[in-house]
Amino acid sequence: MNANLMDDASFAVEALTSSDRVDLGTGRPFQQMARAGPRATTHFDPDEGCAVIVSVGGLCPGANVVIRKFCNMLRNYGAPKIYGVRGGFSGIPDDSSWVRLTPEMVQDIHSQGGTFLKSERGPTDHVAVANALKAKNARQLLDRGGDGAHKGIPQIFTAVVELEHECACCGVPGTIDVDIPLVDTSLDLDTACTAAKE
Questions:
Q1: pLDDT per residue over 87-146, tens digit each?
Q2: Which of 46, 115, 165, 183 could join 63 in a cystine, given CB atoms 3.0 to 4.6 angstroms apart?
Q3: Of the residues 95, 177, 179, 190, which is catalytic?
Q4: Can you give the pTM of this predicted structure?
Q5: Is 177 noted as a catalytic residue in this protein?
Q6: 45-180+187-197 CATH, one of 1.10.1610.10, 3.30.70.790, 3.10.120.10, 3.40.50.450
């Protein structure tokens, strides 16, 4: 089954499949997203624009791993300009929050606690974020965060579309609550289970 997860203006389509697990209340199988993988060609020219990485919401183990993996994968696809933004979505409109990420800068961050990019929660001016992404010619916005961050991504995407700027917006779930629909695990599932056992 294919489902367009955004709207008519979105070209992104994700494959949804039924899992082996069944909802005991309704008897229906749970839906899950098919795993993504490397692609032979990319939609965006890596030399055009830049990629932006943010960390949003509460801290979780593995946040720096995601930032490092984002950087390394973008480099594998040939992206020369990768920025990290300190302060979550709210930091995007502030030029002083943008940091050019180099391989040397992210090489060992996976062994550090917290998040290298200083995660932040709070209300976000999605239009201001979209305007900043357009001004910087950001072509990819990559986020690590929980359910609040994943609610903010579509709002930012909608604002970017209204500005007629093309910017892919995606997120990696990181939450100890494990409360993001269609995701049966996240970065903090093990942490949540360990804390619950104790």
A1: 899 999 999 999 999 989 999 888 787 788 887 776 789 999 999 999 999 999 998 877
A2: 115
A3: 177
A4: 0.74
A5: yes
A6: 3.40.50.450
